[in-house]
Specification:
With 95 residues, the protein is an alpha/beta fold. It has one domain (7-92): Rossmann fold. It contains five helices and four strands. Strand 3 (56-60), helix 4 (63-71) and strand 4 form a beta-alpha-beta unit. The longest helix has 12 residues, at 81-92.
């Protein structure tokens, strides 16, 4: 289990990943669940700002959100097609 206290915000496309991350010891939250609890996170700006204000790493598939994090030096993990392609190539090399 991780010993650090990284706080993670999982964008709505990957709702459920927050639960899996918590199971292995991360402090993870879901945009979708926060919204249903009443947190105002309707726009990409709100999501990015929430992550910034709460010192969180944003996990997203949204390229624009990733670019916004990059431009503002905010920590993020972008799960875009390029990253998925790298995983596919790595797995293919195992055959």
């Amino acid at each position: 289990m991780p010993t650090n206290k990284l706080k993670i915000l999982v964008d709505e496309m990957d709702d459920g990943m927050d639960e899996r991350l918590r199971e292995i010891g991360y402090d993870a939250y879901s945009v979708k669940k926060l919204r249903s609890d009443g947190t105002k996170l309707r726009t990409d700006y709100s999501v990015i700002n929430y992550a910034r204000e709460n010192n969180m790493i944003l996990i997203t598939r949204d390229t624009e959100s990733g670019q916004a994090c990059e431009e503002n030096k905010l920590p993020y993990i972008l799960l875009d097609n390029e990253e998925i392609f790298k995983i596919v190539v790595k797995k293919l090399k195992q055959f």
